[in-house]
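Anyone able to model this chain together with MIG?
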Amino acid sequence: MIRKYTFGTPLPTGAVVQPVPAESGDVPFFSLSREEKKIIFTISMAPDEVLFGLGESVRGMNKRGFFYRSWNSDVFNHTESTESLYGSHNLLVFFSPSRLFGVYLDDPGTVTWDLGYTRSDTAVITSENGDLDLYIIEEESLTALARAFRQLTGRSYLPPRWAFGYIQSRWGYASEAEIRTVTSEHRKRHIPLDGVCMDIDYMVDFRNFTWKPDAFPDLKAFSEALKKDHLRLIPIIDAGIPVAPGFPPYESGREADVFCKKEDGSDFVAAVWPGRCVFPDFLREDARTWFGDQYRPLLEAGIEGFWNDMNEPALFYSDEGVADAFSRVEELRNGETDYESMWWLKDAFNGIANNMDDYRRFYHRIGNTSVRHDRVHNLYGAGMTRATAEGFRRYDPSKRFLLFSRSSFIGAHRNGGIWQGDNFSWWSHLKMALQMLPNLNLCGFLYTGCDLGGFGCNVTEDLLERFLQLGVFTPLMRNHSALHTREQEIYRFSSWEMMRDTVTVRYALLPFLYSEFMKAALTDGMYFRPLAFDYPDDPRAVRTEDQVMLGEGCMIAPVLEQNATGRYVYLPEDMLMVRFRSAADYDVIPMDQGDHRIDIALNEFPLFVKKNHPLLLCGGGESSETLDDRHFTVLCRMDREVAYDLYRDDGTAPDPDLARGLTRMTLSPGLAQASSIPGVAISDILL
Ligand code: MIG
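re: yes, here you go
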């Protein structure tokens, strides 16, 4: 059951697709207070209450015990203390033995979440602007609640199948030759690969929709040649359009008048990578259409996937901001300075990027009204994602394109995936990535993953290996790193064969993981879930923070610590452990419910599978398109007949065609009786 309560004058966000009539009574569960325009929702929590949700945010799967702020931010350098990341996902689920409900704030401005931070027994949710639709969702189970929320906000984006392959990326690849090195090193060493990202270095002066003519003399020929080798290029697009007279996107955007405005009606200008830029007003349909059409030259060059960046929007500085900072210099130039004044000066320059004053300097047009950016800030990245996805649909409605964005808002999950932003090569960020996955899924973002190996800082071999072991299971499996950091491609390391073997497991599992993803997406379910969703009555499972359910029947428990030779794993029920070293080398061990200390060497990683849920390993391959997905080895701990539906569609046709790709296989209990491991079927199947 979903109830809606409206406060103030909410602006349209596009997040909700299923209309719900507004109630007139009091909001259940919460007490309400107001402070100026703020609306504050307060609720007390029992000691055994856990909180799930808030999608992209730091810390644990259980969000209780910290303070979060919904304000999309470009936060290179985020840590455990960072209140805001790149996306705002305002769904929070309260779960205890005595109550279960979700609260969703459809509010594009700042929302704060004091979740037992000020008082451990109280949660306080504050809408800064006081214009919002609040939804209370009540269902019988966590799973049903997640489904009801997805039905409210719409089905998750479906990527093409090749997007489940391994993708290599690095800020710095600047030419065809450099990309060729990446692809040939992979193919030569048989490290599977499906795509290479092109970061801003491919562009002329970092200008969107251009590419360097010398470095990429014939992009179409290049992309077509790579495609013959089952490889795709995935270029980046940034939010800002450079102020460059004569540059066609700038000129046509000016002519169509699609850029955000200052109060005086002139275009708002701020600097990002290309220098001074204007910013498409993605909240306007005409601006979205204009922007989506700009991808055409790249699409015509054969590109089938993009990543959209800098769309919080990130702003390096504005002329106004620089002038303010210089005025502080002037103020201090001839006077006495002390440490306080010098810090004040330093802050003026340090705080010049992504400055709140800049976010108050520009306006969007919604209908006939002009709305100051800070009121709708969190919608910007979602608008860009929508513009891009709509552009793809206009260009070729018969195909699924890959799209993942940095910034997001609920609603954007219908149009694209997201990556988890600029993480560091830290073990703590490996753990954070794992813990974020189920909450992102709860908020609808199924196609996601982190920068494997870590974006900032220098990775170590063992950390990259452990990141890859998590990445084997994340829909987006991309190794990405920042300019000037240690080179992070698998083939740079002496233990590259170990890492290659890890990637082969992804490819052996790819048809299975793809099927699990499609089932989750098409049934408004979750690909990753907290254990609480499957074992709500088991307090141990509910509190488990370093293991995650995957698909219908699996659970992952990655090693998250340096120099560890194993870890403790809690099994909420009897399961089958498959401990992988490579696609062809793994242990199959039935294990009982309870606590286990499991040896997991650096080159190993376990997957746990529930009884009567089969795991399918295909014949493998070096790209998603050349997999042998007719021969499967099926592993299943079973005591009854088991059926499995495998998606074997062409991987690019839009969803209605998916059903035609469905193959049902059945396993009879006899298989497990006759097996060398009693109760576990290990059988080869030819489809
Ligand atoms: O200011 O394009 O998160 O993945 O490599 C940094 C360069 C801009 C931020 C993205 C990152 C990307 C980088 N970008």
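The CA atoms of residues 5 and 23 lie 6 Å apart.
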